[in-house]
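Protein modeling request. Please complete all fields; requests missing the sequence field cannot be processed.
Requester role: graduate student
Desired output: 3D structure, token encoding
Chains: 1
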Amino acid sequence: MSGTISTSEDALLDRCASIFQAMRAITSINSPEEIVAIIRQHVMPDADCIILIGENISQDGLITARVIVDWDRDGLTHAEPLPDTIRRLVDDHPVVISDIDQIDNSLLSVKPYAESVLQAASLIILPLNRRQHITGYLVLGMHKPHQYNIDQIRHLEILACHIGTVLENRELDNILNRRTAQATLAADLAHDLSDVSDFENLGEIVATRLNEFLPASHISIALITSDHPDAELILIKGEQMPARIPLAGSRIKQAISRDAAILFEELGGWADSSLWQSIDVYKLIVAPLVVGDQILGTLNVGGHTDITLLPDDIPICEQAAVQMAAALQAMRTIKHLESSLDETTMLYSVSLAISAAQHVDEIYATVLEKMADVSGSEHITIYLIGPDPLRDMEYIETTAVWQHGQLIIQSPPIRYLPSQIPILMQFPQSRSNLVFNDLQTDPRLSVDLRTIYVRENVHALMLIPLSSSATWLGTILFEGRQGQTFSGDQARLCRSLADQTALGLNAQLLLARTQQVVGYEQILLNISNRLHSAETTDEINNVAIAELAAVLGLSRDQLAEKGLKADLYPDLTREQRELFENVAVQVSSASENLKLLEQIKKSAAREQIVSNMTAQLQRATDINDVLETTVRTLISALDEYDIKVRLFPSDKSASGDAGSLSSAGKDTSEL
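Delivered output (671 residues):
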């Protein structure tokens, strides 16, 4: 046995040493690009192209491949990953081709890739193995044919396995770093957002934290509500965007529908593409803001054309979205509590103002101003039923209008029949809040009515009932102009104000009715006293006509002509009709009393005359005194008559002319 080493053995040792050096160098690389330099220095200095391809398997089993490093001596680019047919060949064993023009039929599928993509005459494709699975591929090509020996292939296989291990370790290290970064981001955001109270502070914190992990040029929040077709956009970073954006056909809508964060690497072909491109955003990650089962909106992270957003960035955005959603929910809760407190305070102050109101106009002024602030409507109309909401409805009248910040009291009120107000005719005495936010298409309203409102630039309507207990008093109509709509919260708060208004109006109506009844009772008492102090029937009629004309606003001539019959005056209210009828009863009673008084006076006079005459006759001593007393009494009682008293014997024929006693007068009566 010789003590020397042959030349071939020296070459093998050199190659082994080079492989070991390459493996040691690859172990300590800082970037995948350094692998190319190491291979060229220690393994294949004459290679014309070297490509590293990574392969990932998603959770749903899909395999995705991407070029990690692409080097070419002539500066060519080989961005295309390996075709599936070649990958299947390499999965079984390495593909080694010394001369592309002399390959057998089993490798014919490699030829187009070698010639068109690599422009190589010889190549070797090795799998990057790690723990019995392939994590990628190493491709080496030469422009000229090259004969690979068994040792080179084995050494390259060992080197490929080591590269796979290093790359996977780097990937695991990157995953660990990303997970650590995500945990750090979540913890930092949770801490920083714990006491955030407004969107400005929230935006500053989120922008600062995300910039540590993502090269984003745009960050925004899109907030959604169930009753609105648009999303409210809150800009955190980037160029200015519209305050609201449509949800239909947008990426925001898709992320919300899928309830998952989505990376959009291409923004073409969407309804909102022009919107994002107008602010130079061409890549976008949209992550839903979810709290429990409720989706508040989305976190939107975008980049310019020179900014790379990768699938690995999605978890970062998801972690940020989780913490932001919790902060937003807390902000909403606080805002809701503050709003509830403000609403309670406002309703309490309105209740006090209504209770202290001395007139209905004061109620209108207080309530309509608050309703205008709450609803944002510039035109509000109050309709009340009449003549008495507490008894019956004969008409509907416009009592007050709020327009352009001013209260307009309709005096006298404008009255309509219920069928003359179309929207009230369709929903008579409705006790529900009715909101019509799209008059052009809302099928609940007639086409003619929608046309009328649209012509008047009214785009939305809200109908809030005025009801107290079981009594429907009327309604309040809100008009929304210039694209304004009404939300559920606005309807709810306006309903609370309307209920307060109804209580106040009900109290005022009861007070007015009581005052009116008391007033009419006092008027009736005064009229009754005057009627019963009248001395003639004409005086009674004149008093009644004068008093009714003054109280009811009627014409004396009209009353004198038509008479005191309430049915002849159809415009009278219920209370006025009752007063009229009571006065008519008093007139009749006074007239009857006057007649009875006259009869009593006459009867008493006659009784007095008879009594006096009887007393005088009892004092008479002879016939002449009797006759004189009789004649004087008759003359005093019947002064308009000639009175003659004749005495006849019991038998006229037996005596001649009898004696007589007479008095001159206009008439002569014989007794």
